[in-house]
Structures
1.
Amino acid sequence: MKKIFLLALLSVFLISIPVSGLAQTADNYMTRGEFVEQLIQQAGIDLGGKTVQQYLVERGILLGDGKGNYNLNQPITYRQIGFILSRFYGLSKMDAHQLKENEKYIYALEEGFLPRYVTLDNKVTSSEGKKIIELLFSKSKEAYEILKKVSSSEMNTMRLNADLKIGMDFKDKNIISFDSMNMTVSAEMDTNTGVYEKIGIDIPLIGYKEIEEYIIGDRIYMKSPEDNQWVYTTVQGLSTLKGAENMKMPDVLSEDTLYRMVSNSVIDGKEVYVINTYIKITDMKKLDEVMNMLGMNDFMGMNYSNMFEGMYGKYTYYVDTKTNNIVRVDIASKIYFKDGILENGQPVPLKWEMISGSMNYSNINDPDIKVVLPDEAKNAQELTMPDMPQK
């Protein structure tokens, strides 16, 4: 009799769940407007007197139906959140996988911005929408503070090894028959004297080339792979980069950077913080300001705001939890060229250029690292740099 009674209670409970526990009304769903309002609030973005809608529309984060309708009062779906977050973090413009526009919500899934195992076209409840936003920023301040310690730590010497891929897109597809090349970099850095590095470039149809160079003061000394001769060029202000470690670098473009603590991991027996930073610079004058801060307002005659439309990137930092030293950085960075840019009177053919790969750091503050210009390079001939692109 007790079993029958318990089964009856269980049956009533199960039958009531869809009604009392799972049923939702329109009032329980988060609207598109509520989501973007809370997103901007949690991110701590200064709107500069603009409304949230104006801010997001100007930056291409909030797209409407083409008729000025943004449906801010309509319930938002997981897929729509995916589109908004992919644009908000700059991943849609970086577009590492070259996806169609109606597929770019995938970047939010790839980054883990959305919860797992959801039906993408389901409406999102207010509590779930709030939770998604809170998780995005739950450890962003902690991540920022860790990188701030990294930038302020003293690094007199180090070694760097990088494997990179350079991708590009051309305005005229017939100009060059390849769209990517591979590059390796091995470098030793000594803040007291300079940098020594070997750069290997593997170019399709051309082959592998290796360039050896020293950066000493305001000069770059290069050893030609063709004739084995040394040449140099002067870049006024280059030596001031040695003072870059005294700047609060995470603060320079903080408004254009989002920080996200991913996890802790282990590399070569060292426990590391894993931190993602997402950079989206739509006002390239800010990069000009950074160069001015470094005393390099005329770096190689180049003005970023004249040359580029915008820059987008994702940088994953692996930071030693004990020493606050960077162990590795995974990068994916894309920059868009403006139309009408000229180099030596000829139009620059590139639409965009993207660098991706990994940089590994070691031997930080190793006293055995000493960068000294070899005697054979001291009689190098001066090389005149070509005119930089201008609009």
2.
Amino acid sequence: MENFSLRPKGDFTWTAKYRELYILTEHWLSDLKFYKEDLHFLYHLVDKYFISLINKENLEEMRNLSSGLSETSINCDRLLEKTSKHLTHLAELIDDPFKYDSHKFRSEHEELENEISFFVKKFRKIKKETFTDMEPVIQKEVKKLTP
């Protein structure tokens, strides 16, 4: 498991107060919203240069890129929804600490963290692939604009 920089090392998930988990989860939700906006930008970038990118040599590459962006966007939406629900449950736990089984809830929290960590790794990979594929096309555009 990759630890998020906002989460203290060790067994934080199992020893933290619900308010601390709430703050951490708010950060996750904020980060996921940022990733969603970043994905929107990547879609826009590919869409803008789509004609320049499509040719016989890289048609399969573009299909893979488009598929990867779509899959990443779907995963981001799913995690946004799951994290929002988790945040709601945390708020309920702060109000009534006996509302849910603490061990089960903390296990779910750890699982969500792992899912977000996995998502971030995949997101970074698709973002790098997108920029790698876009770089030659954008460089051609820049050369056309510079005298």
3.
Amino acid sequence: MSRPRAFDEDTAVRAAQNAFRRTGYAGTSLSDLAEATGLGKGSLYNTFGDKEQLFQRAFGDYCDEADAATDALFTPDAGLSGALGYLRMVTRDALADREHVGCMITKTTSELAVSSPAVVDRASRTLHHAEDLITGALTRARETGETGGEEDPRDLARLLVAITRGIDALGKAGYSAQALRAIEATAARVIGG
């Protein structure tokens, strides 16, 4: 009969997620993961399999959390406020990231895009989910007269997703709060056109 686990699996995954966010997949050793989670290597293997499986779990959980945070911004009647709320959320997160760790999606796709189709697929689903919600919100904003302009809402949504990935990367590169807020303000004017 096996012993019950003496640790919380979700807490261990969160600790591993933080380690991967700081140093990337390649830069995080099994010893780093054992230290971060407080678990022995045997417990890590027995619970999560190998490093790749633990990483996929941590990355999947991160993407699920990003999806949930995005969903919370978009009520069924959200228009421009939903799209700009997404922009503000990403800027706020970049400004709060004092250690310049950055978004796990941005970091991971930069590191593993060539070698891990599963990572690309999961990241793409999360980014497309945001794009779809923003497109819907901008379409409603145009239909209600909240915004004008000739730009296609899908194109604007893609632009907004690209800008937010850039804000995250620039925040990680140490751009000032003033610069990030200026980018946010410019993007809001373009999107709200």
4.
Amino acid sequence: MKCRYARVASAICAAVLCPHANATEVFNMEGYGPISRGMGGIGVAYDIGSAAMMLNPATLGLMPEGKHISIGLDVVNTDIKVTNTATGESVHSGKHGSNNGPYFAPELAFVYRRNPYAFGVGVFAEGGVGTQYGSSSFLSRTTTNSVDTGLDNFSRLLVLRIPFSAAYNVTDKLTVGGSLDVVWTALNVGMLLDASQIGGLAAANRVSGTLVPALLGIPGLSGGHIRFSRDGLVGGGADAWGVAGKLGMTYQLAPSTRIGVAYSSKTAVGDLRGNATLNAVSATAGNIPVSGTIVVRNFQMPAQFSLGISHDITDNLTVAADYQRIFWASTMKNINIGFTSSGNGANLNISLPQNYRDTNVFGVGASYRINSKWTFRGGVRYAQEAIPGDSLLAVIPATPTTHLSTGASYAIGKDDILDFALSLALQKTLTNPGGTNSSVPIRTEHSQLNAVIAYRKRF
């Protein structure tokens, strides 16, 4: 069953030329579909089309009757700079290998709506992260013994959802909905840890395994580099499948005012597994590679609770606002990685502290229909910073918090609509003074421009 799902998802992603999406709110996209994205990511109490399956499936019951097909594409262009504040050296993410941007993510959905029911199925990228720093920056040089390793530092994460959703109009005012999501998580990582970082992790009982004595016995040990990667358009060096669910409702308070509530569960995805190479970096012997397998344990996307309201000021002008509480603390306390040598079965376990905070997210947007052809949108979105500075990893700089967005829809015909939106993540700076997650003090500067376009047809 999992293999069949993998082939289906891979074929869909390849069809739209899908590498992997870079996230804007930790690992989450800042809204799903052009309607939501153009209005600051709202959608709990507003009709955002088939993308409702990613936020509040009850709003599928707000769509017009008929069969709806939606095909879309997200394009994410990042600007990430990491600076060693002790030396002034810096490196930009991008154009160093197959993990660089821009990043692409698919949207494909079908909805059948007939009062009082609506049913939908789709494929959406929930989010991810992507960096590529190459092999010649200060990130590839150990602090201990100052060894230029020539080893890449990168990341690429995709969380793909295949929701099966339904909505039911209980009354003229109340609609309920739910979704069962098949979730695929795929991850590439290349990361150098200095000997000082490994020592700090060991002192905190975050390093264990039968490989530890052998590594400590290497003369001139300066660091260790772990790499697992799949360089194709789809997938990662380690991946796994799982499930998640959503429940939601909307209620018409007044003819022009609607509220909505939704809850999305924490994912239940298996441990990510794949092949990997561990390089022990020696100041005297160079890089000593060990082949084996990798497991990233209990890597989940968090639960979230959402509230929303929409209000029609006039027949042509609507405003909407959402609040979300995202429970990152329960999923991103640590990143737990295990490596097992294919030669003798010796193993190494590392637990990298993350200590993410739960966040509050606020989105406000407006939609104005100019005429029967054109509708314009705008919005703003703010999310609290989830990542403590001393937990920042250069390969996971998912730090932007504020987004400005705009978008529009053009009705090609009565039942054919082209939607598009732009979202600007304002530059966010975060510093790590150095320690367990960085051997040197670093500062990241991260901004990005996201675009999404989709074609909708009703028949």
